[in-house]
Write a structure and sequence with these properties.
There is one protein chain. The chain contains 13 helices and 16 strands. Helix content is 32%, strand content 19%. It is of the alpha/beta class.
């Protein structure tokens, strides 16, 4: 019999949300946390808007050595992990360490530290030949993304499978999907999983500027992220982290753990089409949704809420709308759909996990988060995108999806455990 996998602990650090409660309060209020960039001087850039996390690593309990050693993205993941572990109520020291897995997602890994170190080594780009005398002793840590899940493993004493998932903006969905499968197949009994990214750094901002993917709405940063709105003109770059504790359902029930949600289905597909472009028919996302629902053993009509990728670019929003219609049929016109990127921005690889957290909290509280800033719906995006105001609704099943450069398309189904036979 297939082992059932549940979420028993959540920890988040997002724009406007230093912890799960603040994060959920932001979403349900429909407030936005996108602002003008303050982490560096962005005056020369086309897009100067971002979703920044209010984060002081020292106040979060990290030691000076940890702060020096870890990139900002790793720091966000570590403090989110501590929250998730505490929330789960598990004593990891009492677990068999070989039965604990780690699966972490990130799109750009230690981009912030790599850029900072390059500026030092090259005298702020003035010399082609860098001076190795200024090389940081932690440069290896910044160069090798696998050090990030290793840090999480050290935090909890895990000695089971440790994995880094980096496939762009679906990393946060795919890392959790991988952890779920490790438990289902019996390789692990527990997993600490999620994703993190801290991409608000000049080189990353410049890359998205070059392809005009981010919004130039610098005069109104609080309302710059506008998924499914006819006036949208690009996504808002953001940072953040969400981490989870996963475990086998029967074990969680025996110890009396609080269960946020059961992960009943997951699938990922690739469009094999273009590095940044999307087909208009949404076929590959629809296929990922179909397989995730099939794995969950439910019909499309059972989906009560869809947490959309909703990046706020024209091609994504229309691609997604087509995918929902193709996979859910007529039910797509009845089910509420929303994008939390309208409030917290797009944190690249981290956002998939942040959206899983939002989906699990939506199940727990019976509330559908809204799509903020949706005042002028795109006529080609003609579904129920829950504009502006959260909606109270009993939820039994939530579908969350992700789309990423390279053509990656992923889908995950979360359910109330009592809804699952």
């Amino acid at each position: 019999m297939t082992r059932r996998v549940v979420i028993t602990g959540i920890g988040v650090r997002t724009p406007g949300g230093s912890g799960t409660k603040e994060f959920w309060d932001l979403l349900t209020s429909g407030r936005t946390a996108t602002r003008a960039i303050t982490l560096f001087d962005a005056a020369a850039f086309r897009s100067r808007v971002a979703g920044e996390v209010t984060f002081d690593p020292e106040l979060e309990g990290l030691t000076p050595r940890e702060i020096r050693r870890m990139d900002r993205a790793t720091q966000l993941a570590v403090v989110s992990t501590r929250d998730a572990v505490e929330d789960s109520g598990l004593d990891f020291a009492a677990l068999d360490p070989h039965r604990v897995a780690i699966s972490l997602g990130s799109a750009v890994a230690a981009a912030t530290s790599l850029e900072q170190e390059y500026l030092v080594l090259s005298d702020r780009g003035r010399t082609w030949e860098v001076d190795e005398g200024y090389l940081s002793p932690h440069m290896f840590d910044h160069m090798v993304p696998s050090i990030m899940p290793a840090e999480i493993a050290w935090q909890v004493g895990a000695e089971g499978p440790v994995t880094m998932v980096s496939d762009g903006c679906t990393s946060g969905l795919d890392s959790v999907g991988h952890a779920c499968r490790l438990i289902r197949e019996g390789t692990a009994d527990f997993a600490v999983t999620g994703a993190t990214d801290a991409p608000i750094t000049p080189i990353v901002v410049a890359c998205f500027d070059a392809i005009k993917a981010t919004t130039p709405r610098n005069d109104d940063p609080e309302h710059a992220s506008r998924p499914f709105d006819a006036t949208r003109n690009g996504f808002v770059l953001a940072e953040g982290s969400a981490m989870f504790v996963l475990e086998e359902y029967d074990a969680a029930r025996r110890r009396g753990a609080h269960v946020y949600a059961e992960i009943t289905g997951y699938a990922t597909r690739l469009n094999a089409y273009h590095m940044t472009g999307l087909k208009t028919d949404g076929r590959e996302m629809a296929e990922a949704i179909r397989v995730a629902l099939h794995e969950s053993r439910i019909d499309p009509q059972a989906v009560d809420y869809v947490n959309a990728h909703g990046s706020g670019t024209r091609q994504n929003d229309r691609h997604e709308t087509a995918a929902f219609k193709r996979s859910l049929g007529e039910h797509a016109r009845r089910v509420p759909v929303s994008s939390i990127k309208s409030m917290v921005g797009h944190s690249l690889g981290a956002i998939g996990s942040i959206e899983i957290a939002a989906s699990a909290l939506a199940l727990r509280h019976g509330v559908v988060p809204p799509t903020a800033n949706l005042h002028t719906p795109d006529p080609e995006c003609d579904l129920d995108y829950v504009p502006l105001t959260a909606r109270e609704q009993r939820l039994g099943t939530v579908l969350t999806v992700g789309s990423g450069f390279g053509g990656f398309q992923s889908a995950m189904v979360l359910r109330r455990p009592e809804e699952t036979r």
